Amino acid sequence: MYAFELQRATSAADAAKQAAAGARPLAGGQTLLAAMKLRIAQPEALVDLSGIGELRGISRQGTSLRIGAMTRHAEVAASAEVRQAIPALADLAAHIGDRQVRNMGTLGGSVANNDPAACYPSAVLALGATIHTTRRSIAADDFFVGVFTTALEEGELISSIDFPIPRRAAYMKFKQPASRFALIGVFVAQFDSGVRVAVTGGGSGVFRHAGLEQALRANFRPEAAAAVSIDAGDLASDLHATSAYRANLIGVMTQRAVAKALAA
Q1: What's the domain range around 245?
Q2: pLDDT higher than threshold 90 for residue 217
Q3: By C-alpha distance, which of 151, 158, 130 is closest to 52?
């Protein structure tokens, strides 16, 4: 590690002010601290968000569930409120990384980092969530811009996320065994207005799959997903899997997610 200044924020406004002045926000630190150790990131100052109570918590807001940005994965997984309203979200959180990661990592940190194989972005996108920041509210469809890139501006922090409550939902992940990130993860959500399907782990960032959504809107059954052709052209090929293998996984994980949603 190298020398840097650690600042502790006492409020979201204070944190935003320090971030606007150049301090790098520190949430759970599961990505940032590892990057700093490897010198991939070398911020001169960090602003610690862990002491800001207003950024934590889970509450029902009419037909949606609001979760504070600094709420830990383990808290989402254990929440009776989440399990009752959106059990698929609690299930997703319960299988992120290992126990240490779940007890340190935060919802806001994961979403803001937008790792192309992270689980939470698929839930945010599939559920059509709204990301509230210290400056504005951003629809999920407008938030994820690219790999490790979001619509957040310099000094802008996520304060909470509102997740609309679906009729049914499920998340299925094929894990990369070493990291436990998603080699492919698929989150399926059925609403009265239609179906949303979000895929993570494809290599270019989280995305919705229009073909799967159309098929499942017409017939919310695993066989409907099985009939959809998955194009491997935009998927990554690396030492873990070829693009063709990832394409096959998208179809298989979607079928399993639909079956799981129907069985819940």
Answers
A1: 168-263
A2: yes
A3: 158
Q: What is the DSSP letter of 152?
A: P
Q: How many structural domains comprise the chain? A: 2
Q: 33-42, pLDDT tens digit by residue? A: 888 998 988 9
* In-domain check, residue 238: yes
The average confidence (pLDDT) of the chain is: 95
List, in sequence order, every residue forming a beta bridge with 188; answer none if it has no partner. 170, 197
Say if residues 73 and 102 touch (Cβ distance below 8 Å). Answer: yes
| Residue 1's pLDDT band (cuts 50, 70, 90) | low
* Region 51-69 average pLDDT: 96
- Residue 197, judged by CB atoms within 10 A of its CB (0-12, 13-18, 19+), counts as buried
Separation in Å, CA 132 to CA 78, 89, 129, 156:
23, 18, 10, 10
> Within a domain: residue 186?
yes
Q: pLDDT, tens digit, for every residue of 91-119?
A: 999 999 999 999 999 999 999 999 999 99
DSSP string, 205-248: --EE-HHHHHHHHH--SHHHHHTSPPP-TTS---SS--HHHHHH
Please report, for the domain that includes residue 235, its CATH number: 3.30.390.50
pLDDT at residue 158, as a whole number = 98
Q: Are strands 58-61 and 64-68 parallel, antiparallel or unpaired?
A: antiparallel
Tell me the residue ranges of DSSP E strands in the chain.
Answer: 5-8, 24-26, 45-48, 58-61, 64-68, 130-133, 137-139, 144-146, 149-150, 158-164, 168-175, 182-191, 194-200, 207-208
State how far the Cα of 130 lies from the Cα of 120, in Å rounded to an integer. Answer: 13
pLDDT at 77 over 90: yes
Q: Domain with 6 in it: what CATH number? A: 3.30.43.10
Q: How many Å apart are CA 47 and CA 15, to the nearest integer?
A: 7
